[in-house]
Design a protein that fits this description.
The chain is an all-alpha fold. The protein contains 2 helices and no strands.
């Protein structure tokens, strides 16, 4: 059977969510594909 792996962010990682979302919005505005 396939191996299952589960990942979960630490509290510190979860705390970065607003920063990562902001960087995503910046990229959508400035980065041309």
């Amino acid at each position: 059977p396939p191996v299952r792996v589960s990942y979960e962010l630490t509290e510190a990682g979860k705390d970065l969510k607003p920063v990562i979302e902001c960087l995503g919005r910046w990229a959508e505005h400035w980065v041309r594909a």
